[in-house]
């Protein structure tokens, strides 16, 4: 009986390790950020995070730190912009947005996902979400057609569910 239990436990550990590798190598083009301007990991173009506003201890990079327990929070009510600028260009065709552990009133309700067109000097809306009632710790996965490379991407939140700030736990972007 002990040998069977040990074998089952070992196979669960191996499965968990494989799952961890699969998740971390999932294709997210954004490296794990450790501040708004520094990151860890290899094989990334690199870049930096910034936001239209942020509360102390809830800086922009916390939405890109691969830690669901931390989050970016705007300090300007229901409006907020969360940006990531790459040190190169990528063609993003999907993203995930994970709400924070704060109550639902802080979750984004209306937002756009945009890429910056350098040659035209303007933001291009790639995806738009309106009237979405979310839940704490919920991951939204969005896919959209995109044929262009951009070096900057942002989530522009125009409404939340009524709180004095808007928060996002994690954002991932995929080609």
TrEMBL record:
The UniProt keyword set, sorted, is: Signal
Write down the superkingdom of origin. Answer: Bacteria
Start and end of every F5/8 type C domain? 50-171
- Please give the name of this protein: F5/8 type C domain-containing protein
Residues spanning the membrane: none
Does this UniProt record's set of keywords contain Signal? yes
Q: Where is the signal peptide?
A: 1-25
Coiled coil region boundaries = none
Which species expresses this protein natively? Answer: Fontibacillus panacisegetis
Tell me which InterPro entries the record gives. FA58C (IPR000421), Galactose-bd-like_sf (IPR008979)
Note whether Signal occurs among the keywords. Answer: yes
């Amino acid at each position: 009986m002990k040998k069977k239990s040990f074998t089952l436990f070992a196979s669960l550990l191996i499965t968990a390790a494989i799952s961890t590798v699969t998740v971390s190598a999932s294709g997210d083009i954004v490296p794990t950020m450790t501040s708004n301007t520094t990151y860890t990991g290899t094989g990334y173009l690199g870049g930096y995070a910034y936001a239209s506003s942020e509360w102390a201890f809830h800086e922009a990079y916390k939405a890109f730190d691969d830690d669901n327990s931390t989050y970016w929070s705007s300090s300007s009510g229901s409006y907020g912009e969360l940006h990531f600028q790459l040190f190169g260009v990528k063609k993003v065709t999907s993203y995930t947005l994970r709400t924070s552990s704060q109550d639902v009133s802080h979750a984004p309700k209306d937002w756009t996902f945009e890429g910056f067109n350098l040659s035209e000097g303007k933001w291009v809306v790639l995806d738009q979400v309106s009237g979405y009632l979310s839940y704490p710790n919920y991951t939204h996965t969005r896919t959209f057609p995109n044929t262009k490379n951009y070096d900057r991407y942002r989530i522009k939140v125009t409404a939340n569910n009524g709180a004095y700030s808007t928060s996002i736990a994690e954002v991932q972007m995929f080609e």
